[in-house]
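Appendix B, Record 12. Input sequence as logged:
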Amino acid sequence: MKLVFDTNIFISAFAIPHSKAEKAILRILEGADSLIISKEIMKEVLFVLSSKFHRDSEAISHTALYLSDIAQIVKPVKRIHILEDDPDNRMLECALHGKADAIVTGDKEVLKLKEFEGIRIMSLKEYLEG
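Logged structural output:
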């Protein structure tokens, strides 16, 4: 299955050892599913890790390389404006452009959609149980 992870899943995976989010990343590493990411999602992840979790520039560079290794980077060409929170729209753009099967998120507003353009939207718990 081709997936897009919400920024918060990456943050939790990198900031909280042995978290459910880390288990989701491990599923990707094991080859169970493939991951799609855009540069905008990656920038947001790196910004949050730097500003809120005080990761130094070396850790940020390492994280950027790691994300590039485990995910296919796509460059969406079409802007979407259906959700109030603009970073959530970037996630939808990434999923649409990368032809994702599903978006994994903990965001309640995004989860309310249930699906977008044929792309399933599921919680982290649903993903890990699937």
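Helices lie at 7-15, 20-29, 39-51, 57-70, 86-97, 108-113, 124-129.
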